[in-house]
Automatic annotation (TrEMBL):
Residues 9-78 form the YLPM1-like spectrin repeat domain. This is YLPM1-like spectrin repeat domain-containing protein. InterPro entries: Spectrin_YLPM1-like.
Length: 234
């Protein structure tokens, strides 16, 4: 890889050796310029140039390898990033599915429990007999529905603090007048007895026979007697 410290040090060492050998070669050429053209001079120059070509080739190969490794490293990093992103996305989707499944299961359990509770309540209401209505419940129902809304078989309870005496056979007025003398807080019971109407003239005749009505004045009655003296002369 390009950032590998070992390869970077090798490249720097190769560059340093090349620079040192090049400087030594130039110094040797300056020192032995009087031997230019000799066989020994030409052979050394040829050997240095061959070495220089090899170093240049090694440098080019190293750069090529480093570029390839850099591209491979970039591709690897990109693939790793894609893999991590895909893995995280898959984990998120799996977690979402698990949460949805858990919520659906909890809702199903809650609905089943509620249905079971309702069935138990219905069965309990069916099995248990109806409890008798207490005086308190009867009073509350009477107050909420009104006196006209109660149609039960039981009599209305006496309100708290009501000190009015009942009007029945124990009352002397009831024995004489019956329901006609009932006080205002007593509601007379409805009766289905037929009422026979009586003509007014028949009622008046019956009252006259029993001396319970005065006879009407006749229009032919004489004037009352005058007890005074004669009128004064004019």
């Amino acid at each position: 890889m390009m950032n590998d410290p070992t390869k970077k040090a090798s490249e720097e060492e190769l560059e340093k050796q090349y620079a040192d050998y090049r400087a030594q070669f130039e110094h040797w050429k300056e020192t032995n310029k009087g031997s230019v053209g000799t066989e020994a001079y030409n052979q050394y120059v040829s050997q240095f140039e061959q070495w220089e070509k090899e170093v240049t080739a090694r440098k080019a190969q190293t750069r090529k390898v480093m570029d390839i490794e850099a591209e491979a490293a970039a591709a690897y990093a990109q693939s790793q990033e894609a893999y991590v992103s895909h893995h995280l996305k898959a984990m998120e989707q799996a977690e979402m599915h698990q949460r949805a499944a858990a919520a659906a299961a909890a809702a199903a359990v809650a609905a089943q429990q509620q249905q079971h509770m309702m069935q138990s309540m219905m069965m309990r209401q069916t099995a248990e007999p109806a409890a008798p209505i207490s005086e308190r419940d009867l009073f509350l129902r009477t107050m909420m529905e009104g006196s006209g809304g109660y149609h039960g078989d039981q009599p209305l309870p006496q309100l708290w603090g009501n000190s009015r005496a009942p009007y029945d056979g124990r009352d002397p007025l009831y024995a004489k007048w019956g329901e006609r003398a009932a006080p205002t807080h007593i509601k007379p019971e409805a009766t289905n007895k037929p009422v026979n109407p009586v003509a007014c003239w028949a009622l008046l005749d019956a009252l006259r026979e029993k001396k319970m009505v005065l006879a009407p004045h006749s229009s032919n009655c004489p004037p009352p007697p005058f007890h005074g003296g004669p009128p004064p002369p004019l």
